[in-house]
Fold each of these.
Amino acid sequence: MTAARPPLVADPDLVTPEWLTQVLRHAGAIDAGTNVSSFEASSIGTGQVGANVRYALSYDRTAPRAPATVVGKFSSRDAASAAAGVATLTYETEVAFYRELADTVDISRPQCHFAELRSGTADVVLVMEDIAPAEQGDQIAGCTVRQAGLAIEEAARLHGPRWGDPALNELSWLERGGTVEAMAAMYGDVWGTFVERYRATLDPVTLAAGPQFAALAPRLLADRSSPRAPVHSDYRLDNMLFGTGGAARPLTVVDWQTVRLDVGPSDVAYFLGSAFEPERRRLCERDLLVRYHRALVEDYGVDDYPFDHCWRDYVRSSYSSLLMAVFASMLVGRTDRGDAMFMAMASRSAQMAADLDAPAVIKGG
């Protein structure tokens, strides 16, 4: 018999051994005779909309199969960031992903023991598998081509299983079209504030890309010519944990707060447009997109989506990291690392759009 569903505990300071016992019993991670007797808590990660806490667990009896640690994810303790999480439905989206979609895709992600929230508020908690000792990627430093290859393969494992699946339209939380359209409508005003704050660190290519995207947004939003799939939408290095020392899971993707329906290559463009300095990206991006497309075809039978169409969708998505940097930097609490990350995302994405002549591809339909 499944244990009773635990109550919502949305404040990490209120987590108790008794509550963690309830959570792990409900998930089937420990048996009815095992109790969490104590824990040690420590903050982890660099998230700006969520706060992550690792719990090192002690039990009242020997329990070889019980998890030694788990990770609790809560809303941000920064009021502005928490308000942004509520307004953009990011907390609700992540809970819905783990409840309704995660088990239908193949991408490597943490096992979720418990996910609960109070709708319309920042009261949210997820208790998940701890992926330690995997190492978090660094959005500012970038990654190797080998690591990028792992990320591209995992992207195909997210998109492929539900590629063009009409049943996805029944998941109302997954259709964030209204949110995207609202962002596009507000973009001009937000761009002005973004430039005012960061002008000293914005290069000419990035300054030109902002108004350029605003003019192209209506065409991008109107296009529905490509199959859609669940996309991560914040598919970047800070949301990736890389295994060390021959780990069985070389890459685990986290932070499922922005999942929506879109074209699959949008995740690839978002990733490659921010993970590399332009010189390195230019050398490897086509080969990596070929690798992604091959996985769709060979592993998931996507046989009505030629590579030229895939490349077109990739180029049309090349502003995506710039768009995220502009909005996210204005919504979340400001930090030095956050500023550096948003500048890297914006400038690399803008240069990608310029290199690929994205305006011409978008105007060409």
Note: The mean pLDDT is 93.
Amino acid sequence: MQVGVLTVPLASEPLTDSLSYLDSIGVDAVELGCGGYPGDDHFSREAYLHDEDAQADLHHLLDEYGMNVSALATHNNPLHPDEDRAAEADTELREAITLADQLGVDAVTCFSGLPAGGPNDEVPNWVTAPWPSEHAEAYEYQWDVATEYWAELAEHAASHDVDVAIEMHPNMLVYEPRGLLELRRRTNDRIGANFDPSHLYWQGIDVTEAIRLLGEHDAIHHVHAKDTKVYEANAREKGVLDTAPYTDEQDRSWLFRSIGYGHDESHWKDVVSTLRMVGYDGALSIEHEDSLTSAREGLEKAVDVLDRAVFETQPGDAYWAE
């Protein structure tokens, strides 16, 4: 396995400087934002798409630091009821898939998106309960919208031999493992997970069980290394569906934390071991969103934990079992 980093927290500095820094702290791979919420400060699709010279320059730069690209990231909402916003997200995603193919990158990370609750609504609607019954009807409508879009998008990904790694995220249609598997069932095997445990922890989902479930279907295409801490004193009072600002740390039921600050090193070793059990041997791409520390300190502490957790060699022969 490789220790990787989504470079967005370092967007204020040039990519060359970011790669030099990441190399110095032991990072093996990078995930590059190329649109949507991650932005494209380090990697503009327009500058690289169909440009063999620019792509060659990128490969030379990566080779200089002994790195590879684990995924291109373009998280947005291609199912948005605003047609212009949906079209922009769709263009970002399709072009990212095409560019990944041209670069020899295996995966594009993204969101499933979230439709409105009906054909005449103007804003996305996250349905979390089947009653009153209009919510169940809205949920069925949303899946119809998603199936039509993603079936075609999945074919586009298949034609480019690129995996689409969907991050299971609340306020998106696909926010937990069974929903991810349902979308995969309705489309093709190019649709899978960008397995980010941070959004699963606060939902009460057992992360290693989720890995096993998705692993049974070979549905983990990429992994984010990102932790979450649930603060029980607040959660006991207001639950975990928390709309307090992320920067209002003292009042939140949970916070995204650097690796090791939500769950201990033993847990992360269990996560890594379970990923290996189900056949995942790609990058663990650190996504820094810990508001209690700086990007560099958060990244360095995460790398420190993961360096001791990841396996650097392939399994040997089980001589003791013969």
Note: The longest strand covers residues 29-36.
Amino acid sequence: MRRRNVVLGLSSIVGAIGVVLSVSAATKGAAASKAQKPRASLDVRKPPTQVRLAALVRGPVSHPIHAAGQIRAKSQVDLAFLVGGEVSWVGVDVGSKVRRGQILARLDETQVAADADRAQAAASQSQRDLERARRLEESGAVAATTLEGAQTGHTIASAQARAASFALRHSVLVAPEDGIIDLRLVEPGQTVAPGQPAFRLSGKSRGAVMRANLSDRDIVGLGIGRSASVRLDALGDEPLSAKVSQIAPAASPGSGTFEVEIRLDHAPTDYKNGMTGKIDIERKVDVGSLVPVDALVPGEQEGVSVIAVDDGRARRWPVHVLFFEGERAALKEPLVGVSEVATQGAGMLGDGDPVAVVP
């Protein structure tokens, strides 16, 4: 019985070894059969990518300076009485339109008129004294020094009379030109000193201007007389022709910008001081080349490139963008030898890819 079990065990082991050898032989046969099977040929040719081309432009391009500013009358003056006194009458208020020579306010003339009469009387008396001294000096009745004293007294009295007459004439304040009263600083009954501001007038004689602050990059090369256009936000988008009239010689200490004044050729009649607007100042900039914005494609290392077509193949040009103007990009590189760049379909191209140009 024990011998029979041993025989059965050996038979089982031999059978298992046979199965393993059979599987291994089958696997090697399959691998050999697969290796001997011929490999299908692969077509590695890439079909051409259809693109559209756009012309490349070189040379100076228009790149206006864009700024914002406020419109104001060029002539803004503070008006004041040249003599002191009590204000007796005020005839205008803020917003009043005035004409040249129009009386704006008066001082009480009582004291001023009395001073003028007294000074005129003193001048007349000194004139008579001078004439009498001349006759006496000619007859030898008085010394020459008496005549000299009479002449000095007449000179002083005449000067005082002129000053009193000046004060009487300037006891009224008149508008020096046509304009609008922006500020009123006096009231009837108020006592004012000579030169104390009474009104602020925006005159029309010198037109209207826009003032804007520009950076040092924009100020370089900018000159007086450069053409510009202005659009006032409150009065629509109609451009108003203008020219650069003043440029600050130094930067503002606070902001580091330069104030530029733009004079409007014809200011609208309904503008108000302080209205805001947009300013475009004409400028030409030398660039390497100019291409449509949609010709720019992502480049290596986060840069950008453009794609040119050379003998049916895409040729990638790394570029640097200087600025955008509308739907065009100004590039630093002149791209010598390139006359057109790919636009539509450019983003799908790699360097050397086949290209089919669509008319």
Note: Helices lie at 2-36, 109-139, 144-169, 216-219.
Amino acid sequence: MPSDTDIDAGKLTQRLAIEQDVGTSLDATGQHVEDWQAWGSPATRAAAVRQLSGREVERAAMLYAEATHLITLRYVSGITPVKMRGKLGTRVFNFGAVNNVNEANIKLEILASERLA
């Protein structure tokens, strides 16, 4: 019987670039200026990115109200919802909640919202 931490490697078919906002400057109106840079080594990781269904969105809203997608990848230390995002080609996903499934350091599940251009 599969456990929550099992990863079906065949489903990690997308290459997700992990980025971190390292911007420290403010614009003329005092707003933070984003400066996104590649994070980690490697900065691009095998992942599964899928849109949440209606019922899943309702459940996910308890953790992250804006969740539209679930991103699954192998565990890597240091990924947080603070000033981090993922890029899949030209699509951008803001991280909302990051779950180290069962605290086993095997699989991460990230609730994210797709950022519209």
Note: The mean pLDDT is 91.
